Amino acid sequence: MGLGSPKTTFNLEQMKRYYLLPIFTLALLASCDNSDEYIERMNQKPEIFLVTDMDVIDSEENSSEQQEEEGDSELVEEFQLVKQLSDSVKIQQGFQFTITVEDFSGNLNSVRLRDLVYQSGFLVEGNQVIDQELELIPGEQRTLFYHPYIEGQHNIVLQAEDAFGEMDQLELNLIVFGNVGPTASFESEKLNHLLYKFDASNSYDGDERFGGKVMKYTFLIAGQTIEAYSPDINFKFSEVGDYNVGLIVEDNEGTPSAMYSEFISVK
């Protein structure tokens, strides 16, 4: 053999390492330069929800065999997540609601009131007035309470924003009203000669749904004023004849009704 430089040979695996390693390194460096853009493209914006009242329902998932083994069917709590809710509320009571945030990308930055509502009312959590921002851990449920100052339309908007400026919001639309007065009504029944029963249990308060109730019943019979705190009374007339019987009821806020009256023919 003649003199010369030694012959160098590469197998396929060596060639792969020799050529592909620099390419992989360059690609990795390029990907690092664009990592922020990539994370932002893959980012999912946070979502903020109102949690509706929970209802206990009869679960239909259990089979009849399971029900026989376990006795009564399982009770399941269900709730619904919504972005918008409209309701009415009595100004003296205020409105309680629950919120939650989902943040799949883990980039939640803040939850805040979009517009301050303090000219119309204020928002609190416990004893803490919510100024603008609210610290909220994704997945947890937080109960807030809105105290309105005035009657009318109230709109409460809460926004969740992540580190990339992506936002979601919920909106609570409330019609705030004052006290609604009661309505008086009664029925009469003859018990015996000159003795009648007057039953005002059909009287009702206009805002019973919000805790209103009839508290006082004032009957006007044959020139007499009879005040009662239960809906029915017995009254004995002094003589036969036609009488105009009136009734005024009063609710738990002291608001009286208009008078309801009927002519009673006593025989």
**Count, helices:** 3
Mean pLDDT: 81
Q: Any low-confidence stretches, pLDDT <50, length ≥5?
A: 1-8, 56-76
Look at the structure and give the CATH class of the largest domain. Answer: Mainly Beta
Strand count, sense and barrel status of the largest sheet are: 6 strands, antiparallel
Instruction: Indicate the proportion of strand residues.
Output: over 45%
How many beta-strand elements? Answer: 22
Distance between the ends: 149 Å
Shape annotation:
rod-shaped
CATH architecture of the largest domain: Sandwich
Describe the 3D structure.
- It is built from three helices and 22 strands.
- With 267 residues, it is mostly beta strands.
- It has two domains: 131 residues, Immunoglobulin-like (Sandwich), CATH 2.60.40.10; 85 residues, Sandwich (Immunoglobulin-like), CATH 2.60.40.10.
- The chain has a six-stranded antiparallel sheet, with no helix packed on it. The protein has a five-stranded mixed sheet with strand order 5-13-12-7-10, with no helix packed on it. A four-stranded antiparallel sheet has the order 19-18-21-22, with no helix packed on it.
- The N terminus is likely disordered.
Write the layout of secondary structure elements.
Elements: H1 12-33, H2 35-42, E1 47-51, E2 55-58, H3 64-70, E3 75-78, E4 81-82, E5 84-90, E6 95-102, E7 108-113, E8 121-125, E9 128-129, E10 133-134, E11 141-148, E12 152-162, E13 167-177, E14 182-183, E15 187-192, E16 195-199, E17 204-205, E18 214-221, E19 224-228, E20 232-236, E21 241-251, E22 260-266
Parallel strand pairs: 5-13
Antiparallel strand pairs: 1-4, 1-6, 2-3, 6-11, 7-10, 7-12, 8-9, 8-11, 12-13, 14-17, 15-16, 16-20, 18-19, 18-21, 21-22
